Amino acid sequence: xxxxxxxxxxxxxxxxxxxxxxxxxxxxxxxxxxxxxxxxxxxxxxxxxxxxxxxxxxxxxxxxxxxxxxxxxxxxxxxxxxxxxxxxxxxxxxxxxxxxxxxxxxxxxxxxxxxxxxxxxxxxxxxxxxxxxxxxxxxxxxxxxxxxxxxxxxxxxxxxxxxxxxxxxxxx
Length: 172
Prior knowledge:
Number of strands: 0
CATH class of the largest domain: Mainly Alpha
Distance between the termini: 19 Å
Shape: rod-shaped
Radius of gyration: 26 Å
Structural class: mainly alpha
Order of helices and strands: HHHHHHHHH
Strand content: under 5%
CATH architecture of the largest domain: Orthogonal Bundle
């Protein structure tokens, strides 16, 4: 870093080299620093991703543990016999419905496939299955959409960082 910050002419004079060689040296050093920073950021992003996976797994395992709760909720859903409730029940598993009902931020508890299912579901059918009003179900779908978009951006960023770091490794 110090060698990069030193003016090119001063460093050339000190090392008894031409300024063009010193400029190439400084550019190379800057590339090394940039690559190290990108690698550090990639590792940090990967660590965040792994932590998110662990958190998601632990949350999902906690949702899966109480088997009596989904039965009770299923009874609540089954008491109304409209066709919209049936379609919501068949499209979304009891576990997903339990997570949507019980968790304060359910979009963080669901995997990406479940988020997609929630988004595909009709807002009225979702509201009916959860025993909520249509506006609250719509807000839930919007939150799920935002979370899914955020996850997709993170994956794209990871791929971009990976391809950038692969490209830099081929440099001399």
